[in-house]
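Work Package 3 (structural annotation) set out to generate three-dimensional models for the target panel prioritized at the project kickoff. During this period the team completed the workflow that converts sequence records into discrete structure tokens, so that structures can be stored uniformly alongside our sequence database. As a representative example, we reproduce one entry of 290 residues exactly as it appears in the project archive.
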Amino acid sequence: MRRIFLLCVFSLISLNACHRDTIPPDPAETALIKKGLDSYKYGKFNEALGSFADALRINPLSPEANFYSGAIYFHKKDYPSALAFFENGLKPDPDNPKMLYNRALTYLETEQYDLAVKDFEECLKSDPKSWESYYYLGMLSIKTAKDDQAPAYFLESQKLNPAYFWSYFLCGAAFYRSGDWKNAALQWTKAIEIQPSYAQAYALRGLALYNSLLYKDSLIDLKKAMSMGYADSIVPMTIALDYYRMNDTVKAKDFLNKAKQDKELLTEANLKLFPFTDYIRKSLGELLQK
């Protein structure tokens, strides 16, 4: 899942964007950084690291050399090394938003969530238009069970980048987990408008509509998800509940039997997990007695 949430760390930035140097850099350092960037652009990461290492011998605090070295080690999943370079790169400019943002991503990958939150927040102080920072703060709110805080971050992210699918998708999840079915459905509707081929969005909107007592609309979405190949057993189970609420017990039992082919579906542990709700559990208990 993490690669779904991770935005590309390798966006090329201008050499002057990383720092506030007032003293012209050493020409040899500049040449080495240029050589490293040329290798970097073509994916020759080991060659790039060599050039950046030479540049760092001339200037250990070179923001560019530290930034791209950190980015390469992040790509290699060597997170301790990535952190070391990002931290070194922040020494001449502690407020550098790109360095803070990428260090935050590294903290996220290593599950140091409190530190990631702190860096994303600091990034926003320097770059208030960083929609990615708002997005990740929303995602981190979900990860740390602060679902009530997540929508505000996602909504800010959406204002700055209205076209990012995952911001709507996860905002819907946050609203759903907070019991706000209406706004959950609205967010998944917007996600579907952006990416109409994503079956899970229809499935989850169907669950939100079921919890909103809109059984016919729920049925349409859930059947759409199934027709698109979405195989999670909660879909036929909720279709069964839709039919049960619409007083068609025969179809309800038919779909429930399909769902029960998943032996894990009705286990006590599974029933406690997202996206089961009190109303779904109550309805399921009633149907199982029929």
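Residues 27-41 form the longest helix (15 residues).
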